[in-house]
Fold each of these.
Amino acid sequence: MRDIHNIVILTGAGVSAESGVATFRGPDGLWEGHRVEDVATPEAFARDPDLVQKFYDERRAKLKTVEPNAAHQALAKLDQAWPGDLLLVTQNVDDLHDRAGSQRLLHMHGELNSAWCLACGERSSFLDGQMALDPACPKCDQFGFLRPDIVWFGEMPYEMERIELALAQCDLFVSIGTSGAVYPAAGFVQSARHYGAQTLEINLYPSEGSFHFHESRMGKAGELVPDWVEEVLSHV
Ligand code: APR
């Protein structure tokens, strides 16, 4: 721990599971009840925008009923107290890391609370008002061009250059609550190791990529992440 200055943390759906947000894979996962091709591709949106909007409207409505859990709060505490570089990269489109107070945060797969106008290219926040996706873009007033600001299958995640740079410079890479089934995020551990970082996984169960990590801790994020954060901060 003495030589750790730069930390990159990757989170997935598992970090929000104890808040009551559904994960994607597994028996109660979102992809058990929906076909990815029907709701999470640009082709699906072109074919049936109402179905796609409904899927994300329901998930956005669910956000109002959930709260950050002990894992989100511990990561926000680490963000505020860590004197070195730190980047929290989340695959989650919920706003629980934001609400817990994490500042050095990237949403690589987009955000439920954001809409993207395909006419003017601007993003608008649902938190700014009562915007629905069917009326005009609040920035350019054109109708019919707003889409959920979600990175769909077949699309490039956001901020990849910044993430790759952080991975190349980090001393510690920690992956929390992700199945390691979706690239490029699933490959971050290999990049970080390639550049010499220590690597730690926290997950309920061994994931597809567990063997890539120096250390794996199995259990609930809400219990293990606060302990890990205290461990890290005890070395500051
Ligand atoms: N604590 C820790 N880990 C947990 C918990 C918990 N309480 N509950 C579940 N998990 C773990 C599961 O064991 C699983 O490995 O979280 C992981 C969730 O995996 P997925 O449902 O596949 O979610 P994620 O890895 O975030 O998915 C990646 O896939 O569909 C796309 O764009 C979507 O961002 C998403 C991406």
Amino acid sequence: EQMPLEMHKVKIVQKLNLLPVEERLKAIQEAGSNTFLLQNRDVFMDMLTDSGVNAMSDRQQAAMMVADDSYAGSETFTRLSKVLKDIFGMDMFLPAHQGRACENIISQAMVKKGTFVPMNYHFTTTRAHINLNGGTVLELIADKGLETTSEEPFKGNMDLDRLKKSIQKVGKGNVAFVRMEAGTNLIGGQPFSLENLEGVSSICKENGISLVLDASLLADNLYFIKKREEAYKDSSIREITAKMASLCDIIYFSARKLGCARGGAILTRDKELFNRMKGLVTLYEGFLTYGGMSVREMEALTVGLEETMDEDMICQGPDFIQFMVNELKKRGVPVITPGGGLGCHINAMEFVNHIPQSEYPAGALASALFIAGGIRGMERGTVSEDRDADGNEKHADMELVRLALPRRVFTLSQVMYAVDRITWLYENREMIGGLEFTEEPAILRFFFGRLQEK
Ligand code: F0G
């Protein structure tokens, strides 16, 4: 078994605090047992997300100094457009301030009331925007994707039979678009294969339906294709990306995860669609040459996208995650396997199997892990679902605590510290009790909801 190796060195650091356990307990109580409500000064390892917190390279920082700040016609826009075209082969680009802003624009332009959007799996903000425009999400992940422990290399694959049947059932005219999410977030950062994407693409073409790729977690998915898909083991990352892009009609991404620390982009080759979305960008985001991003971020993104084509860069996330997964597995801790992108996912349903789903096992475990180690993870289970129209609780398919490994941020010894604290908590898991809401917002309740021990 290989140890992951940092293919970079540290140049700028941020001091961390490790509070005594009594203070950690107080902090999480004040945060309503919700890790989103913790103050970062109280956190030792911030494993909440990989969004906006990946490390930047020296070249990205340098590029930020040469940004061309003009409202219209900026050189920065031209540079970013050129790199996007080189990498993805799509010549039309709309900038936006982050991923969900792209989702707003795509949904407003393409989703009509009563239409359907088949996808491998939903993401929270994606589904919310589709629903807001009167559309319904159809989740068509292959059954293997929902098995918590497995050897399946591509758990993000769509079930192609179910896609064909769904299109027949609702009628192709009622399908707004088909969406594939790279590095499928909510099932553990799991990739799809290029073979699967080809299948999806040809079904879309047969039916005249647009294929939209959410490329926010593209970097991890690219690396997994290179490492796990036999047919592409000798292809370069750039070739794999070009092939992937050639199968899609629209690509959008959150640049908070891909390439930079802020921003978003929508790419297409379809002039008519581009024109429909253009007006919405001007209305919601900003002029077409910045779309809510600062030119500095756009320059960093330009360099970051180029760096994403470097295997030494994109291996960092997946290799460190796989290492953490292996170490936890060796110690008997229930984790999602195989390791995906984004982070290491702990299976709370098993870790705290004495807590029923009605008492939010993943929320309880995320809270306990902060007390045990000053580690901030994210609940990805029933708290992250909202109630249905009748106010009934919707139990999530999986109860996960996501421990993100922002790219190139943590060292191996910090990862080992996390492994040690999680193992200790597992050995003392009976101490963890279930939770109940004391304040429960109606929309995206996981962000600001407050809970207490039941
Ligand atoms: N799509 C995917 C797959 C994402 O993971 C995210 C964000 C978005 C869209 C929305 O992008 O945050 O820039 O508006 N995921 C973050 C996370 C929030 O922590 O998983 P955004």
